[in-house]
Amino acid sequence: MKDFAQINRRDFIKLGAAAGAVGAAALGSRRLVAMEQKLGGEDFSATTGAARESVPYTCLACNIEDGGIAYVENGRVVKLEGNMDHPNTRGKLCAKGNSGFLHIYDPDRILSPLVRTGKRGEGKWKRISYDEATTLLAQKIREVIDRANTENKPEILNEIVLKWGRNRTGGAAERFMHALGSNAILHHTDICESSKKVGLEPSWGPDIESCDWANTKYILNFGSNILETAYFMNPNAQRLVDGVVGNKAKLVSFDVRMSNTSGFADEWYAPYPGTDGAIALAMANVIMYEDLYDADFIRDWTNVTAEQLKEHLKTFTPEYAEEESGIAAADIRRIAREFATTKPATTFSYRGPVKHVYGSYQEAAIHMLNVITGNVEKKGGYCLPRGMGWPQPEPEPPKGRVPSLLATPPEYPLASHHVSTLAPYRVRKGEAKVSVWMTFYDNPAYTYPSSHVWAEFLKDENLVPFFASFSPFMSETTELADLIIPDVTYLERHDPESMPSGLYPCLSIRQPVVKPLGGTQEFRQTLIDVIHKVDPDGSLGIKKYFAFDTVSDWMRAHFDEIPGLKEEGGYNFLKKKGVWPIYGKVDPNTAKIVDRNGNEVEADYGLHRKELSASDMEGAEVDGNGTIRKNGKAIGVQIRGRNYVGFGTPSRKIELYKESFKKFGFNPLPTYKRLPTRERKDNELVLTTYKVNVHTQSRTASLKYLAELYHKNPMWIHTKAAAARGIADGDLVRVTSSVGYIVTRAHVTEGIRPDVVAISTACGHPSYGRLAQLRQREQAPDWAQGAASPDISNNVWWDDRGVHPNPIIRLAVDPIGGSQGWFDTLVTVSKAQPGDSYGDVQASVEASDRDYEETLRYAYNGDIHRKNHPEVDIEWDALPPAELEGVGHPDAG
Amino acid sequence: MPIGLQAPPSLGVPGKKRWAMVIDLRRCIGCMACVCADKAEFDVPLGVWRTVVKVKNTGAFPNTKRHFMPRLCNHCDNPPCVRNCPTEATYKHEDGFVLQRYERCIACRTCIAACPYNARHVLPNNRDHVKIGGVVDKCTFCNHRVEKGLVPACVQTCLGRSRIFGDLNDPNSEVSRLVATHSTVVLKPGKGTQPQVYYIKPDRGLTEQAYSEPVSYAAKADARAFYRHNRSSKFFSGVL
């Protein structure tokens, strides 16, 4: 994606300067006649009528990073609204975004650092100052650094671990860890969507597609819930509705459960979990064998031939896909024909297909449908994401010297987004050591598969001698910490942002819209303070990477030197406008971005077809495949005499054939592997999870507006499956996997496959403040320092907080993408037994340990891997060894 | 002659405004952004709503559909709540807003009983930052915004652009164009209230759903808890 960010920046700087001038002018009179009321951009108090102060920011209720405007009255944020200048989110916020300001005023917010006084997890704390807290953390870190230096073992530095969930610091957290010399940076991407990323990146460079929803005519959705939750929900949902209602596009959706997206679709199909790839391959088979493919595009822009694809797809017939998925071959054939012959068309996929073992194959198969039909980078088609970058302040610390086993397990050399789920198992087995564990925007004791293992692990002072959390909320994970240095909420801190949430690349800013509540300190400042205390005199050579007097200085270093933005005012422009560039205005009737004459400011298409300039070509060489190289780096591709930038791959073409996969015994072409859950016993069901439109995974249960709308998560079960088990709607049921069981209630519905059950996330919190636990009438615990909310204390009317499914979900790692197979757990469901009560949870650490051993067998050096890949023609006995330093993990070291 | 503080119906009267909302149900995705924006706009406490989105599933597997039905005060051109208010707390503005004057309201609930749409509620006293309670409240069509040239908050944030707001007396307005070019319905037209919220593409299931009882155990259990808490209202929202 970096390559494209650079191209984009250069191109859009020109456009940005032009559009910025236009944006300042008033709309033409033609438009004013049609729509007399303004959509937004200013706000007035409902009680006094007074204008409210407005401050732009970037949302972080979830991870879409919508542009927002906060309205402030008497120093209090009273309302949030979308920023009309944001070209992709266009003045709209979703339910979560609209409710995000409640985070600030959460009565159970932590407003001062806390140090543990009782046993770990006992809930006894002493309030200390930020100065004392950063001194304590710095001292713990310094001890590790001193030991590494004394023993001359840089690997000791990897005992300093930072695990984050939602890191939108724009490089600050990485800078901190690299400055300390540690590579033990654990992401959450593998419990999110990393197998999708790994299915895409080797093929065309970036990690996601950006669909031109508004202009398309046909959408094939595989397992994503675009209208509720999937990546870029708000901007994608806006454009999807424009496409389907406004542009008369057809939406065909594959999902095991009737989500709002599938309930909205023209056609909904519910395949067996984990078989989307078989359907996509069968569609590709139909498209290739019925000659419906784009021969020119395959010839010019891919590293395979049509004949090669036909040969590969021969056995993936619609009948085969019907056998695997349960979707009729006739439907698969018809949809394949419609998809290939309706132009433009696009697929979109998200967690449904990819959160399985072998999820990356499924993503690659879906991606291929767009490639063989030539819909890539077309108006109305399947486009590359458009993001922008920002420079990091110099000097930048180099990565640590030794790769970290916890961050980059060598068994997963293709998992470019890391595998974090294995960490507690490895530490418990003595394979890696931890001295200081830090956690930021992360709650694995609630959000991870077999979440009980994380709670056990973090509770163990022998395994995790020191544990610091930066969370402002008492989550299931943070309550186990020794030290809490609370960050502020996203409306009170600084971050640079850019999200490819639409076809217009832009930068945006997060900034305090009010003074941080209760004298709290933002994470960025805490990092500066800790570093300055670890290396007070600069003798360790670390302090120079944090030579910022203030957080604002740091932000200036990101924004003040970007060409184009610099001329318009750099950081000051972003502080005022929130987003850059300003492409135009949102037309109130069409929601398109228009210039002052009301004409659409059209997005750029065909990014791969940008031609290289003569100066780019100076000193470049073209190899036999057309790849253009300069200074050892592939910069483009020559096709029939023209020099294009191409795609972000080694050949600069779309690499449907992935050499990197083959090296480790994986099929280099998109394929399908039957999962163990396909061998289901008659009484078993596949457990799936999902998110709803008004919640994130774990952070929003404490927001009153959202909790009021959705607070309990009964298990969806099909009418027939329920009847076969004697279960009626609302019955108490016991759901049992090989890890343990939970007791919840049944929601009997027609909207789910009969062999699947579904339980949403976001409910059943055993912590996360009083409201999430429905203990709002109790007295505030000592650590809770927000102002009391009379509304929450008195007006909560619901009496059910739900039951969380994660403890019984098995650990399962995709051997390619490293993702958690969230939908690979089989369960039995029965009426609750005598003595069972709602919310009971029983989960075994030993059973999860067995899952750990089992899932490693699927890794490239495991025995099941070889058995599952007889078709891959390599020297199986000469696979590269799974050594930390040997494999060349993309991010190692 | 109108009774109470009732401005005469303004629909189609030259020189008058008639604010109205069109809700294009083809475009509603049930995202609940409007519900939350409205809660924030007025610091609406838990347990009451000025606007909700009703959810209904229809069909049998695999031919199922999900429908959404946003609801709010209809700002009737002939509002029964105004006729029935004994203290003239509720009145109709000449531009069409049906509004509430808190200082005159004695919370007698007559208007609540008179409203065929369940669109009114009694404000609880325990609120976070707006300290008005113990009186009847309702959707105002965001008249405080509209008078400053803005659309209502729910329209502003509507992801699907399902909610459209404007002056129905202006033939060039978007609402006029939509009402003129689409078949629309209003709720309970037989009550003679002349409601001014127009729905595009409602199928039978949808209009019925606006008043139907909850079906699933999950929804019924919430409804029970809600009624226990707030016996005056059946106007509540939920995702299940």
Automatic annotation (TrEMBL), chain A:
<dbReference type="InterPro" id="IPR006311">
    <property type="entry name" value="TAT_signal"/>
</dbReference>
<keyword id="KW-0732">Signal</keyword>
<dbReference type="GO" id="GO:0016491">
    <property type="term" value="F:oxidoreductase activity"/>
</dbReference>
<protein>
    <submittedName>
        <fullName>Twin-arginine translocation signal domain-containing protein</fullName>
    </submittedName>
</protein>
<dbReference type="Pfam" id="PF01568">
    <property type="entry name" value="Molydop_binding"/>
</dbReference>
<keyword id="KW-0408">Iron</keyword>
<dbReference type="InterPro" id="IPR006656">
    <property type="entry name" value="Mopterin_OxRdtase"/>
</dbReference>
<dbReference type="InterPro" id="IPR006657">
    <property type="entry name" value="MoPterin_dinucl-bd_dom"/>
</dbReference>
<comment type="similarity">
    <text>Belongs to the prokaryotic molybdopterin-containing oxidoreductase family.</text>
</comment>
<keyword id="KW-0479">Metal-binding</keyword>
<dbReference type="Pfam" id="PF00384">
    <property type="entry name" value="Molybdopterin"/>
</dbReference>
<dbReference type="InterPro" id="IPR050612">
    <property type="entry name" value="Prok_Mopterin_Oxidored"/>
</dbReference>
<dbReference type="InterPro" id="IPR019546">
    <property type="entry name" value="TAT_signal_bac_arc"/>
</dbReference>
<dbReference type="GO" id="GO:0046872">
    <property type="term" value="F:metal ion binding"/>
</dbReference>
<keyword id="KW-0411">Iron-sulfur</keyword>
<dbReference type="GO" id="GO:0043546">
    <property type="term" value="F:molybdopterin cofactor binding"/>
</dbReference>
<dbReference type="InterPro" id="IPR006655">
    <property type="entry name" value="Mopterin_OxRdtase_prok_CS"/>
</dbReference>
<feature type="domain" description="4Fe-4S Mo/W bis-MGD-type">
    <location>
        <begin position="52"/>
        <end position="108"/>
    </location>
</feature>
<dbReference type="Pfam" id="PF04879">
    <property type="entry name" value="Molybdop_Fe4S4"/>
</dbReference>
<dbReference type="Pfam" id="PF10518">
    <property type="entry name" value="TAT_signal"/>
</dbReference>
<keyword id="KW-0560">Oxidoreductase</keyword>
<dbReference type="InterPro" id="IPR006963">
    <property type="entry name" value="Mopterin_OxRdtase_4Fe-4S_dom"/>
</dbReference>
UniProtKB/TrEMBL annotation, chain B:
<dbReference type="Pfam" id="PF13247">
    <property type="entry name" value="Fer4_11"/>
</dbReference>
<dbReference type="GO" id="GO:0051539">
    <property type="term" value="F:4 iron, 4 sulfur cluster binding"/>
</dbReference>
<keyword id="KW-0411">Iron-sulfur</keyword>
<dbReference type="InterPro" id="IPR017896">
    <property type="entry name" value="4Fe4S_Fe-S-bd"/>
</dbReference>
<dbReference type="InterPro" id="IPR017900">
    <property type="entry name" value="4Fe4S_Fe_S_CS"/>
</dbReference>
<dbReference type="GO" id="GO:0046872">
    <property type="term" value="F:metal ion binding"/>
</dbReference>
<dbReference type="InterPro" id="IPR050954">
    <property type="entry name" value="ET_IronSulfur_Cluster-Binding"/>
</dbReference>
<protein>
    <submittedName>
        <fullName>4Fe-4S dicluster domain-containing protein</fullName>
    </submittedName>
</protein>
<feature type="domain" description="4Fe-4S ferredoxin-type">
    <location>
        <begin position="96"/>
        <end position="125"/>
    </location>
</feature>
<feature type="domain" description="4Fe-4S ferredoxin-type">
    <location>
        <begin position="64"/>
        <end position="95"/>
    </location>
</feature>
<keyword id="KW-0479">Metal-binding</keyword>
<keyword id="KW-0004">4Fe-4S</keyword>
<keyword id="KW-0408">Iron</keyword>
